[in-house]
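hey team, just a heads up i'm posting the complex here instead of the shared drive bc the drive is being weird again. everything in one block, sequence lines first with there labels, then the predicted structure for the whole assembly after. its two chains so it's a bit long, scroll down
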Amino acid sequence: MPTLSLMPPEFRVARDDNKCIKCLACVRQCGFDAQQYDAEDDRLYAIDANCVNCQRCVSICPAGALTIYKNPPPMRPNAHWTEGHLRNIVKQAETGGVLLTGMGNDQPFPTYFDRLLLNASQVTNPSIDPLREPMELRTYLGSRVEPVTLEECRDKTRTPLVPIETPIMFSAMSYGSISHEAFASLARAAKAFGTLFNTGEGGLPEDLYEYADHAVVQVASGRFGVHAGYLNAGRVIEIKIGQGAKPGIGGHLPGEKITAPVAETRMIPEGTDALSPAPHHDIYSIEDLKQLIFTLKEATRYQKPVSVKISAVHNVAAIASGIARAGADIIAIDGFRGGTGAAPTMIRDHVGIPIELAIAAVDQRLREEGIRNRVSLVAAGGFRSSADVVKAIALGADAVYIATAALIALGCHLCQKCYTGKCSWGIATQDPYRSRRLNPEIGAERLYNLLRGWSHEIKEMLGGMGINSIESLRGNRLHLRGVGLNEVELKLLGVKHAGEAM
Amino acid sequence: METLNAKSLSYQALNDYIRTLLDNGCRELVLKNVNGQRYIGAGVRGRARLEIHGVPGNNLAALMDGLEIEVFGNAQDGVGNTMNDGTVIIHGNATDIAGYSMRGGRIFIRGNAGYRVGIHMKAFRYKKPLIVIGGKAGDFFGEYMAGGTLVLLGLDLQPGEAIVGNFVGTGMHGGEIFIRGQVDSFYLGKEVKAVPPTAADQERLREIVGDFARYFDLEAEKILARPFTKLIPYNKRPYGTLYAY
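-- predicted structure starts here --
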């Protein structure tokens, strides 16, 4: 039972007793103990205060007897003191703790993707039908040096380019933050589709090394599970500096989530907190970053491209320039909508900048400096559809990372309670009773379907513009127009306003 | 035994030579005139022995797995960064973050060490990393430490010189630190406490100091004559109550 709170429940569970067949599926499946059964009275009831509105019970109820309602806000309407602020204050008055949350920033900041529109061909050049004509989505990630001389071809310190069959990869989610089943679903789907998944900072479980050729293996400040074998097994190595949901801070994976297999993969004792320091303490400058990049390249004999992932922050363009000059092959930029398994709410909701502006600024800066060819740019942070992907590539990205969208494909309903480890959908949990609800084979199929659908839509949009290769779209901002954006925004995005001609 | 003259070789060329020699079965390699070349031994696996004359550059033995490296000179930052296994013996000083995230193996430093030595050191199954420092160490000694053993001997200290800097063991949540002599509590981070070493600890210290003395031709008994202070974390979840659930 929850302790008495000054706040009324956020949600209400309504059960239609005429429909309910008392199968108790809801009681068994609720990860948060909101659904209860009183065997003495043979009565089902709900503890509304426990409900997080994850929709698990609603989805699995065979009789369709359940509905979750938002509890009407009990307060007098107040545009400044919103219900969210009141809830937070009460929670902190009761616990004295730092507010935690999961998934991405849910505040009503502008989404620039929704203010950008794409072009299409009419009369003056033909559009292309991807169903019948060749259309190239394959993207090569890595550093391109030009012009290529014979000397450079013999250069042993050039890392290879990595092809992906669609410009969409799965973003970093560690084993520990998500279940083995969810992790395996991502790995299988990435392999089947010919793209990459990302291990996050929790290492790669032994039984998934067969997928390592499709893995971006991450090296973060805690160096969990990082050893020469892990680095050599992966396809790309990624140094994680920051994450869109929590720029500038580290991570605390609580001891409860460090079960035996997670501990094994992270190579730490069971039950201990997995603390990732905020900075890498061997990186205090671009020169230090260069040192870690080349340590990893030396350790893998220049066979793996090295990516550096940062969050989109105010000075992102200059930082990206430094990263490119430090010898990174890929720069991944995570916007402020990027998700997380756990982050302090204030950080998630108030730090960072939109990915659209960050990508445009970085691409522009690297081109001005003549070093755009040295790196691939990967954009991340809240991509909701193939249209978002196309717009990001037109703004200058080579490819994108998706994570929230992938989890939604696996069943996530964005209840934002990942940090509790109680996920009813078997995704953000280490409890085998919950995690086995997610079948990795079915999960992989759903992810594959998502990639297939988005990839085809991207081809349709490309074809409409009269382009037959994703490479021709990269940084092609003439294919974008802004609507309702002011002059500064248009300038930063490098696009004209809708209605303006070529 | 092979000998390689590192004079005016770039780190890439030098490391390429080293790896090629080790790949071809070389078990003992002497590097002469090493002068700041970085990443020596980085990511190298195996049982060979490297002898380095001169000053190796940053990230010596990073991600290394099994080699024995003996340095006749000083070492720079990041010795044994994320090292998995092996032994590094340094006959001079080492600078910052020696043993960062080290998971296994042993580092012996005859002289002093810089800041944040042993930061985020871990232990895993039978792996228990060890760093022994003959002289003094800088601030944040053993910060975020999650496992393994740090031993600080404070040999040859000048009168009035402190054996260790401030904030010892901040964020520490595993492992143990042994400091020879007394450490005033204001040096310690708030996550650690000082306890007297047990009889088993004494036995292990005897072994560790014995190895140290052997590598550097010192008298173990003299070093052990002074009692040690043992530092351990209060618990393995220092930030367990920080959040509002």
